[in-house]
Design the sequence.
């Protein structure tokens, strides 16, 4: 066996991720010399790194065409799917930094670590989207998770923040345990951890199917935890509520997208031979997740908790697309629908959290739904933006969320004639989205139909984040074709 | 029939004018209330005037779509931006643009709070409604359909009566629940047909089998039935109508309900001819129940607005009966009756709003002898009431008579009861609704306008103002015009309706 050389790693394929990782270390070091009280310099520095990685990513995307770039001896595949999701992660991290700049100093938790940790978890997500080996998926999962555990507790000594970090860490570690054990069993069943290897082994003679299937089940538990799918969602409301709000915002979109990236890649590239089995499991999870998330959200009084359950519900909608991917002919469309949905969800949810951050008080209170009272009067533009985000989360026009839902259900219906369960999933999906209208509209009622005490103006960085997300949510709702086509082009590579 | 790949410029401009008005309004400081009101008048009037150009196309001779065009919107999913107008939709488009300035003018003094937002939502709603009638792509239709919910929700929820929040949420959730089933049907059709373009899908062999087509029919039908509303899905309507501000009620009655009946004409009947025939008897029976039930419940009301609201259930029952007679005359009558109902009930709501603005009550017991104090207003109210009742010479008669003729001659209601054919039976029963309308409307008129003045506060009421008269006059002119000389209104839709009916499979003629 030849020893690998540095050149054979083909680091160029992983360049955007490596830039973010390297930049995280630069920021970590630089932050030591940035005096407290000026930590926004750290933020601007981090943004530079993200933009740089974004530019490289763009060049890669333009240059790669249909050809996936492979690095680390096939353990890292920067195909269109990975590149699309990496763009989503970079975008989410970018906005989350804008969300945090003023917020951290306002709450008296201005620590440069926020930015370093955010860059590290972004690295983990980017790795996750390109991981073509179960070991690398696990590595990415941990790199994604550990900084998030710390970030959740960033607001210490706020007891809720500490609770969030502890809970997230304990349950997260537990889920990782499932995941590792799953990998071990899959290895036991197929003799390999490489996704293409698993595919081959399952098609070849004498794989141990029992091990492989149980192993996949355990992997699903681990990833289900990350994407906040029922019944592995228990941590979500407490962590979302307790964590500092920008962290919640990033977690709700980034960690979810990371989890789904791995889920889609593992299921579609390694396990198509048992797609009927996992299709059924995912469909049942989707049913549970949509019903549970939407119905419990109705009774929430805190907006962060409500959006936590809403985030569970949205995981359910994305699972609908994953379930549809069990059919080889539907898989490309389903995966692009899921990726597109993740992007629209990121836009919308980051925007919604931006509004929450704007009205949150300096002590972390002020996140009750009633705190939105009279927003349309005191801050009409912010209320209009929040209205757009609520429409988008409900799936009403003119918003990105509506198009996202449309594609997800379209994907599922493509397979529905072959699997009655999938048809049931779609019907439950559309019906629960009516339920969701009920709790999103409550925010609108507060903003537009109640008197309030007035709200502070959003600070500049926050305003920038709001502008980006609002324009994005609206524009993609009107002209979805360009982004969707990128998502579709991206996904062809994954399934072929 | 396929659509040309050109940009539908004229109809896009028509859709865009209210949007421009919306933008001007939201960029105006909220203290400039007069400017905002005049802006709303200006842009809705311009929309109306521009929309009159639609009359120039030769609808009489062709059932094709005019001013039409389609460009790819989301090409990979087969979705286009496609607009067009034909004999089925022309009158509804014009009704919408006509009601636009009318509701703005009628709100002049009625809305005093949050004026800017009010007019912004009102003009935005006009674009959404026009979009529903113009869209020729199912996805685009769905987008506009859903979007009408948002401004209407606010109009009821912010400027409505005391129970507005309940009413607005009920309105929202009912419609959303219906439209979501339609979404599934749309998606399914789009996947099967490979396109969402309606003219391409009509007549295409989708190979989906009779049963699937019937389910899809139901997916659309439930969404539309809630909107119409067909009994027993009507319970949101009285709440929404009573709580909505006057303009909201006028738009609800005038246009939003027509979106439901229009949906049946545009989607259900041409897309699923077999299923339409299969469900025609059931829908006709529900329609007749609605006719009688609406009339009956109207009679029991003490609130004038609620009375008008329930009368809509009855009137829309006639429209549904005419549509599912599935013959030329029935469908023509139904389309004309959609317009008639928009004019008459729109005018009724306007006039109820006028008196409510003066007295802040709509309880019939609080009135009596109004004719003595407000003679002009009362005389006009009489005309509108008679129009709604279906008095010969006024518009309502033409519509109802045509519908009843269509129903009587229909071979779509294939059942018999005690030897009487369904068509005869249903027609006979629905005439009860005509009689009922006379009873409840005349009772209302008598209680409110005739007799001595019983309540002191009514003595000082001012008669109709010039502004109010302006908002009412166009409706009155049309009420007479359609009543006396309806043939131009029928001529425009004949070709399209013929094409629609001829596409239906031949029906077994009853003995």
Sequence:
């Amino acid at each position: 066996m030849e020893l690998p050389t540095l050149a054979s790693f083909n680091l160029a394929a992983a360049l955007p991720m490596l830039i973010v990782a390297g930049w995280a270390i630069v920021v970590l070091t630089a932050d030591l010399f940035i005096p407290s009280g000026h930590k926004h310099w750290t933020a601007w520095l981090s943004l530079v790194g993200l933009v740089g990685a974004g530019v490289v990513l763009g060049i890669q995307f333009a240059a790669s065409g249909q050809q996936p770039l492979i690095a680390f001896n096939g353990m890292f595949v920067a195909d269109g799917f990975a590149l699309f999701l990496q763009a989503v992660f970079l975008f989410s991290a970018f906005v989350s930094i804008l969300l945090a700049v003023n917020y951290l100093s306002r709450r008296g938790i201005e620590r440069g670590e926020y930015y370093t940790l955010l860059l590290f978890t972004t690295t983990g997500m980017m790795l996750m989207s390109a991981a073509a080996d179960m070991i690398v998926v696990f590595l990415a999962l941990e790199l994604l998770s550990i900084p998030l555990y710390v970030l959740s507790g960033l607001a210490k000594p706020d007891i809720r923040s500490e609770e969030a970090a502890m809970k997230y860490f304990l349950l997260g570690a537990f889920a990782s345990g499932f995941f590792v054990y799953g990998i071990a069993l899959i290895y036991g069943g197929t003799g390999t951890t490489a996704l293409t290897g698993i595919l081959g082994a399952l098609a070849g003679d004498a794989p141990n199917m029992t091990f492989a299937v149980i192993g996949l089940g355990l992997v699903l538990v681990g990833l289900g935890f990350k994407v906040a799918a029922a019944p592995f969602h228990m941590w979500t409301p407490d962590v979302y509520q307790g964590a500092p709000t920008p962290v919640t915002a990033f977690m709700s979109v980034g960690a979810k997208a990371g989890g789904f990236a791995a889920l889609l890649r593992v299921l579609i590239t390694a396990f198509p031979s048992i797609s009927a089995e996992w299709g059924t499991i995912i469909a049942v999870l989707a049913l549970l997740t949509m019903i549970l998330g939407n119905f419990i959200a109705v009774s929430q009084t805190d907006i962060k908790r409500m959006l936590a359950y809403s985030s569970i519900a949205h995981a359910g909608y994305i699972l609908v697309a994953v379930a549809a991917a069990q059919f080889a002919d539907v898989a490309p469309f389903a995966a692009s629908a899921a990726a597109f949905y993740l992007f629209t969800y990121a836009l919308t949810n980051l925007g919604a959290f931006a509004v929450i951050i704007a009205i949150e008080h300096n002590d972390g209170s002020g996140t009750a739904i009633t705190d939105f009272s009279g927003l349309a009067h005191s801050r009409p533009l912010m209320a209009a933006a929040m209205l757009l985000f609520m429409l988008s989360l409900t799936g009403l026009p003119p918003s990105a969320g509506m198009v996202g839902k449309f594609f997800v259900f379209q994907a599922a219906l493509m397979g529905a004639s072959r699997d009655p369960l999938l048809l049931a999933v779609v019907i439950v999906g559309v019906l629960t989205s009516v339920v969701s209208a009920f709790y999103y509209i409550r925010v609108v009622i507060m903003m537009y139909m109640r008197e309030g005490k007035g709200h502070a103006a959003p600070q500049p960085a926050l305003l920038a984040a709001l502008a980006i997300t609002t324009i994005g949510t609206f524009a993609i709702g009107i002209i979805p074709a360009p982004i969707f086509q990128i998502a579709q082009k991206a996904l062809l590579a994954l399934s072929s | 029939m396929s659509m040309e790949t050109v940009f539908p410029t004229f109809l896009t401009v028509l859709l865009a004018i209210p949007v421009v008005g919306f933008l001007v309004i939201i960029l105006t400081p909220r203290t400039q209330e007069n400017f905002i009101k005049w802006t709303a008048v200006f842009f809705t009037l311009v929309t109306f005037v521009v929309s009159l150009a639609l009359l120039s196309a030769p609808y009489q001779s062709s059932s094709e779509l005019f001013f039409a065009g389609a460009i790819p919107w989301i090409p990979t999913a087969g979705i286009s931006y496609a607009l067009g107008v034909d004999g089925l939709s022309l009158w509804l488009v014009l009704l919408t643009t006509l009601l636009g300035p009318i509701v703005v003018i009628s709100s002049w003094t009625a809305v005093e709070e949050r004026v800017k937002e009010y007019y912004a939502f009102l003009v935005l709603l006009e674009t959404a409604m026009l979009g529903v009638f113009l869209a020729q792509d199912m996805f685009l239709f769905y987008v506009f359909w859903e979007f009408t919910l948002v401004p209407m929700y606010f109009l009821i929820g912010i400027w409505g009566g005391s129970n507005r929040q309940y009413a607005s949420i009920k309105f929202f959730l009912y419609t959303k629940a219906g439209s979501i089933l339609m979404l599934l049907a749309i998606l399914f059709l789009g996947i099967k047909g490979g396109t969402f373009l309606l003219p391409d899908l009509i007549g295409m062999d989708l190979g989906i089998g009779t049963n699937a087509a019937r389910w899809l029919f139901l997916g659309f039908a439930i969404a539309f039935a809630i909107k119409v509303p067909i009994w027993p899905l009507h319970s949101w309507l009285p709440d929404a109508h009573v709580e909505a501000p006057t303009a909201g009620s006028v738009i609800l009655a005038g246009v939003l309900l027509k979106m439901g009946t229009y949906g049946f004409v545009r989607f259900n009947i041409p897309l699923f001819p077999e299923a339409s025939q299969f469900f025609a008897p059931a829908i006709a029976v529900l329609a007749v129940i609605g006719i009688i039930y609406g009339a009956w419940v109207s009679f029991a009301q003490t609130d004038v607005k609620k009375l008008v609201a329930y009368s809509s259930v009855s009137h829309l029952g006639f429209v549904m009966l005419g549509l599912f007679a599935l013959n030329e005359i029935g469908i023509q009558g139904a389309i004309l009756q959609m317009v008639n109902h928009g004019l008459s009930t729109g005018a009724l709501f306007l006039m109820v709003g006028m008196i409510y603005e003066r007295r802040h009550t709509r309880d019939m017991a609080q009135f009596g002898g109004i004719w003595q104090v407000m003679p002009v207003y009362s005389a006009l109210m009489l005309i509108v009431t008679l129009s709604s009742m279906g008095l010969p010479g006024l518009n309502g008669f033409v519509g109802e008579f045509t519908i009843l003729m269509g129903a009587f001659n229909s071979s779509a209601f294939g059942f018999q009861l005690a030897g009487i054919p369904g068509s005869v039976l249903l027609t006979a029963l629905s005439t009860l609704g005509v009689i009922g309308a006379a009873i409840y409307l005349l009772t209302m008129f008598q209680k409110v306008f005739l007799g001595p003045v019983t309540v002191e506060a009514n003595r000082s009421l001012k008669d109709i103002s010039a502004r109010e008269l302006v908002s009412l006059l166009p409706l009155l002119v049309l009420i007479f015009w359609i009543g006396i000389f309806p043939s131009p209104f029928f001529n425009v839709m004949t070709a399209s309706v013929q094409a629609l009916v001829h596409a239906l499979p031949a029906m077994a003629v009853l003995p």
